[in-house]
Specification:
Layout: E1 7-9, E2 16-17, H1 22-32, E3 36-40, E4 46-51, H2 52-61, H3 67-70, E5 87-88, H4 93-102, E6 105-109, E7 115-120, H5 121-129, H6 134-143
Parallel strand pairs: 2-3, 5-6
Antiparallel strand pairs: 1-7, 3-4, 6-7
Length: about 150
């Protein structure tokens, strides 16, 4: 099993751009009902993930915590360094599972660091628990190395 079979592609994922304001980020998070959302550079490179908690701490830490003030503050102001780092498309299943224990979604990037989508914990569980069909068994048999007589 590879990460591509578990991937929700970028076209089906809500994300923010790092130059959005905090207010724009809050509005998009609320619109989709997410607790965390990926943040990208305009060139498509993955920057990080911002969570509800990041927004909350920003509101509490600032002297002026009105939404009007947040219209001018860029989203990168609330990003935590190294929070929810991305994995490459060639990640091992064991590493992906380890990450899924920590986060509800794992951002995936290509070899240039461009965001290609996410793998959700839900997709992993579905893929590992859904009963296999006959064609799935045949695919596994074809991949399995054959014994060689010596």
């Amino acid at each position: 099993m590879n990460v591509i079979s578990l991937l929700t592609p970028k076209t089906n994922v809500a994300y923010l751009y790092e130059d959005f304001t905090i207010r724009q980020g809050l509005e998009k998070l609320r619109h989709y009902g997410y607790t965390a959302i990926p943040v990208l550079a305009r060139n498509g490179r993955y920057i990080g993930t911002v969570s509800e908690g990041d927004f909350l701490w920003c509101l509490l830490d600032e002297e002026n915590n009105s939404l009007k003030a947040k219209e001018k503050l860029p989203l990168r102001h609330v990003l935590r360094p190294a929070f929810n780092p991305a994995v490459r498309v060639d990640v091992t299943l064991s590493e992906l599972l380890e990450r899924a224990l920590q986060q509800s979604f794992i951002p995936v990037v290509d070899d240039r660091g461009a965001f290609v989508g996410i793998v959700t914990r839900q997709n992993i569980i579905r893929k590992l628990t859904v009963p296999k069909t006959g064609s799935d068994y045949r695919e596994e048999e074809e991949v399995r190395p054959r014994a060689v007589a010596l």
